[in-house]
TrEMBL record:
Protein name: Serine/threonine-protein phosphatase
Residues in PPM-type phosphatase domain copies: 40-272
MF term (GO), any: protein serine/threonine phosphatase activity
Lineage, opening ranks: Bacteria, Bacillati, Actinomycetota, Actinomycetes, Micrococcales
Domain of life from the UniProt record: Bacteria
Region called Disordered, residue ranges: 1-31
Species this chain originates from: Arthrobacter echini
InterPro entries: PP2C (IPR015655), PPM-type-like_dom_sf (IPR036457), PPM-type_phosphatase-like_dom (IPR001932)
Length: 310
C-alpha cells in the first residue's frame, strides 16, 4: 500500500552568481540571502502503511522549504495541502523577485492560502503548514520559521537539538497547562485534533521564529506522520548521522515505516554550511552552483504549470 513515494536531493550554493548571467539564476542568487552559505537538502513522502491516500504535500525550492498535511477526508485534505504548496511555489520567493522576505509578506501569503482553500473546498478541507525561509536580517543570514497546526520544524545546531515550532493541538494545550506529560500526549486519543489550520476553523494565525543561521545547522520539517511515530530522541539520533540530507531523510521515513506508519509520512532535511567550511570538508568537490532544484509534491497530482506526477 505504500508504493507511492517521492524523494530526491540537491546541493546549491545560493550566493554564487555566474559573472555572465542576467537570468533568473542571478535573481535567485541575490534574493536567497545566502551571504556565503551553501544549502544541501533532501526530501521524501510516503503514503504509509494504513492510509489509502497521501494527503501530505511539500515544496523544497531554495530559499523556501515547507510541509503541508491536509485533512478533511477523501479528496479534501489532498486539495488543501496542494493549494498550500502551489501557492508557495508560485510566490515571488521562489521566483527570485522578493529580495527581502518579511513576516508581513509571509502573513499575506499564508492568508492567500487560507482564502483559496476556503474558496475551492467550501470549508470542507484544511491543512497544516510548517516551513522555513532563508532570509537576510541585519546583513546576516537567518532562518524565518512559520507554523500553523501540528506539523513540525526541528533544528540540530552545534550539538543542540530542539523543536522550533509549537503544536497547535488540544494535547499541546493540555501539556502547556500541566494536565498531560509529553509521553502521555503521544498516546492521547485526541492527539490528532488541531486547534489551528488553514482553510478551516476560525483560527488560522501563523507563529513565526527568526533565528540566525549557524554553520552546520541541520533542519527537519515533517508531518505528524513522522513525529507521531518517532520520539524526539529517535529523531535526534537519526539527524545526528554524518550523512547527506537525502540519506538522513530516507532513514527517517524508513524508521517511521518500521514503527507502523499509521499516517502519511513526509520530511525535508536541510543542511547549511559556510562555503569555506563546505569546501574544506569536501576538497576538490564539483561546483554545485545552479538554479534551485524544484523539489515539489502536490498530493492531488497537479503541480506547477499543469505538471502531474507519474
Amino acid at each position: 500500500m505504500h508504493d507511492r513515494q517521492v524523494h530526491g536531493s540537491h546541493a546549491i550554493d545560493i550566493n554564487a552568481v555566474p559573472a555572465d548571467s542576467h537570468s533568473a539564476r542571478e535573481r535567485e542568487g541575490r534574493s536567497s540571502a545566502g551571504l556565503g552559505n551553501r544549502l544541501r537538502y533532501g526530501f521524501g513522502t510516503d503514503v504509509g502503511l494504513v492510509r489509502e491516500l497521501n494527503e501530505d504535500s511539500f515544496v523544497a525550492i531554495a530559499p523556501v522549504f515547507a510541509v503541508a498535511d491536509g485533512m478533511g477526508g477523501h479528496e479534501a485534505g489532498e486539495v488543501a495541502s496542494s493549494i498550500c504548496v502551489r501557492t508557495l511555489e508560485a510566490s515571488s520567493i521562489t521566483a527570485g523577485t522578493e529580495p527581502h522576505v518579511t513576516v508581513e509578506y509571509l502573513e499575506d501569503l499564508i492568508d492567500q492560502v487560507d482564502q483559496r482553500i476556503r474558496s475551492e473546498a467550501g470549508g470542507d478541507a484544511g491543512t497544516t503548514l510548517t516551513g522555513v525561509v532563508l532570509v537576510e536580517e541585519s546583513a546576516a543570514p537567518h532562518w524565518l520559521f512559520f507554523n500553523v497546526g501540528d506539523s513540525r520544524s526541528y533544528r540540530l545546531s552545534s550539538g543542540t537539538f530542539g523543536q522550533i515550532s509549537v503544536d497547535h493541538s488540544e494535547v499541546q494545550e493540555l501539556v502547556d497547562t500541566g494536565q498531560l506529560t509529553e509521553d502521555e500526549a503521544r498516546t492521547h486519543p485526541r492527539r490528532h485534533v488541531v486547534t489551528r489550520a488553514l482553510g478551516a476553523g476560525d483560527d488560522t494565525e501563523a507563529d513565526f521564529w527568526l533565528l540566525p543561521v549557524e554553520d552546520g545547522d541541520r533542519l527537519l520539517l515533517c508531518s505528524d506522520g513522522l513525529s507521531g511515530e518517532l520520539t524526539d530522541d529517535e529523531i535526534c539520533s537519526i539527524l545526528s548521522i554524518a550523512a547527506e540530507p537525502q540519506e538522513v531523510c530516507d532513514e527517517l521515513i524508513a524508521a517511521a515505516l518500521r514503527s507502523g506508519a499509521r499516517d502519511n509520512v513526509t520530511a525535508i532535511v536541510v543542511d547549511a554550511a559556510t562555503r569555506e567550511a563546505d569546501d574544506a570538508a569536501t576538497p576538490g568537490a564539483e561546483d554545485t552552483t545552479t538554479t534551485p532544484f524544484r523539489g515539489f509534491f502536490a498530493a492531488d497530482g497537479i503541480g506547477p504549470a499543469g505538471w502531474r506526477r507519474p
